[in-house]
Amino acid sequence: MNFILKANTKTYGIKKQKKERFFETFASKVAHATGSTAAFLIAFAIVVTWGICGPVFNYSETWQLVINTGTTIITFLMVFLIQKSQNKDSLAMQLKLNELLASSKLASNRLVDIEDLTEDEMLIINRYYSKLNELAKKERALHESHSLDEAKEGHQYKIRLNKPKNSKRSVTKKTQNPKKT
User: Fold this and answer.
1) Under a CB-based contact definition with an 8 Å cutoff, are residues 125 and 148 in contact?
2) At residue 34, does pLDDT exceed 80?
3) What is the distance between the alpha carbons of residues 23 and 83, in angstroms, rounded to a whole number?
4) Which 3 state secondary structure label does DSSP give 2?
5) Contacts for 100 with CB less than 8 Å, ≥ 6 apart
6) What is the distance between the alpha carbons of residues 159 and 144, in angstroms, rounded to a whole number?
7) Among 3, 21, 77, 164, which has the minimal tally of Cβ within 10 Å of its Cβ?
8) 66 CB contacts (<8 Å, ≥6 apart)?
9) How far apart are CA 102 and CA 148, in angstroms?
10) What is the largest CA-CA distance in the chain?
11) CA-CA distances (angstroms) from residue 8 to 11, 20, 98, 159, 180?
12) Which residues are CB-contacts of 147 (< 8 A; sequence separation ≥ 6)?
């Protein structure tokens, strides 16, 4: 009996996944299609046709109701389709950013899943970035990057990396003829 229950749960899970995947695919395709030039031209043609039909129907309430009802229904449904598509795109983007943060040695792991923090917590982290911005402005180096955890230490470390250790060696390197081996 336990096996049957697990099998039924798995079957239900697969059916649910298929339905969810179908809706995701449908939402993505509809959002993509409705954002196309062709969709705009079709919508524009419908509105122009409706406007031209106004005199034929004496600009009646029914004539007005047709466009109002049609646009309201389409707008209502599109809100959910577009939101579903944007949620998926946003999640994919967030996962990619999390991967970049996790793979960088100098990046702060505090930023992984930062979207789950409150606005006040994000403002605290923003203050750290403001401090990093001040450090970068002092050095006038736009290509320096820093981590939240090691703002000052990382800043000093990168400055040391960019300074030549021995000014005589750097002059010698610059004056050597690259053709000689």
Assistant:
1) yes
2) yes
3) 12
4) helix
5) 107
6) 9
7) 3
8) 50
9) 14
10) 91
11) 5, 18, 35, 62, 76
12) 106, 107, 108, 154
Q: How far is it, in rounded angstroms, from Cα 16 to Cα 84?
A: 16
The angle, 0 to 180 degrees and rounded to 10, between the axes of the packed helices 61-103 and 2-34 is 110
Helix (H, G, I), strand (E, B) or coil at 53: coil
Q: Which residue, among 79, 67, 86, 66, has the nearest Cα to 24 in the 3D structure?
A: 86
Identify the helix (H) or strand (E) that includes residue 140.
none
pLDDT of 137 > 60? The answer is yes
The residue among 156 and 120 whose pLDDT is bigger is 120
- How many beta carbons lie within 10 A of that of residue 147, not counting itself? 20
Report angle CA 86, 108, 93 to the nearest 5 degrees: 15
Q: Which letter, b or e, does each residue of 151-181 get, where b requires 16 or more Cβ atoms within 10 Å of its Cβ?
A: beebbeebeeeeeeeeeeeeeeeeeeeeeee
In the chain the first and final C-alpha atoms are separated, in Å, by 79
Tokens of 129: 């970035």
Separation of alpha carbons 51 and 47, rounded Å: 6
